[in-house]
Design brief:
- By secondary structure, the protein is α/β, with parallel strands linked by helices.
- 35% of the residues lie in helices and 23% in strands.
- It is globular and about 50 Å long.
Length: 296
């Protein structure tokens, strides 16, 4: 294939098509991270530009896996984009494996954002009341700083607790508890917060918080607790699907609560399809079967 050199009429990134950079690991098998984000964001008519943080043969829920840390390559990789003068309409961050990676990503947001860039931080830190084994106290503190650079954050209940220093408890969460955490997350910097995966008796909830205005003009808050019927068991990669839809919709100007409902319903439908096809839990959700249902 012949490669052309950019000219004055063919500048990198000069297309009217919107672009989103997604910083996450590349996992070959198991439907998560970049292998989920790229098709989802592309389906929503946005060019997805990946920044790999690690290469895995398959995700870590399998008995064994190959892992190659990309930390030492990230700065050189990103430096080439800086030479091209690229900017992005959206930036999404996913799983980060070290404090240094978080620092690199923080610099990426500063360097590649422009006025109007949507920055979404998915602070993948833990679940079920515990941080992941790879997460240190230093990384948790650095993630708080990274979340402060975001316009949108999508933590689950555990991650919301970690970021706001809120004690975690099992069982159901009251809306006033969720509102308190969402407000504290918003005070860190993001104007839009969705606390994902809130457990209910027969439903899974997503608590939305949106703040507009400022201290001078007066701040306004909007909240919504969006629930969908629980289907099947928890599967890998659903959070990555959720974040990809929220980012792409935000870049496309879709209203926040509408986007959260859309993402939650799509994931539910993916799980239903996966159960019907008897897809193993570790293999994630077979979103490919119903990707055509997802509309910009």
């Amino acid at each position: 294939m012949e490669h052309t050199t950019p000219t004055q009429t063919q500048k990198p990134g000069s297309s009217r098509q919107k672009k989103a950079a997604v910083i996450n690991d590349m996992t070959g098998f198991g439907r998560c991270a970049l292998t989920v984000a790229i098709p989802i964001i592309s389906r929503l008519k946005i060019q997805c530009c990946p920044v790999p943080t690690a290469i895995l043969s398959n995700h870590m829920a399998y008995p064994s896996y190959y892992f190659d840390d990309c930390t030492d390559h990230m700065e050189s990789y990103v430096a080439e984009w800086k030479k091209l003068g690229l900017t992005f309409d959206g930036i999404e961050t996913g799983f980060l494996g070290s404090a240094r990676q978080i620092e690199i990503v923080s610099g990426f947001i500063r360097d590649f954002s422009r006025e109007g860039t949507t920055v979404l931080v998915d602070p993948i830190m833990g679940d079920n009341g515990r941080t992941y084994a790879t997460y240190t106290k230093e990384m948790c503190e650095e993630m708080k700083k990274l979340a402060a650079q975001a316009g949108i954050v999508t933590p689950n209940v555990t991650e919301s607790c970690i970021l706001t220093d809120t004690p975690y408890h099992d069982g159901f969460w009251k809306e006033e508890e969720l509102l308190s955490m969402a407000r504290r997350l918003g005070e860190m910097g993001p104007s839009k917060v969705v606390i994902t995966g809130v457990p209910g008796e027969s439903h899974i909830g997503n608590y939305c918080y949106e703040r507009t205005g400022n201290r001078e003009s007066g701040r306004k808050e909007e909240t919504a607790f969006i629930q969908v019927k629980r289907e099947g068991e928890t599967r890998c990669g659903t959070g990555d699907i959720f974040a990809a839809i929220i980012l792409a919709d935000a870049v496309n100007g879709v209203e926040f609560k509408k986007s959260v409902s859309k993402a939650a319903e799509f994931i539910r439908d993916c799980i239903v399809e996966s159960v019907q096809m008897e897809v193993p839990l570790t293999d994630g959700v077979c979103f490919e079967e119903i990707l055509d249902r997802l509309q910009p």
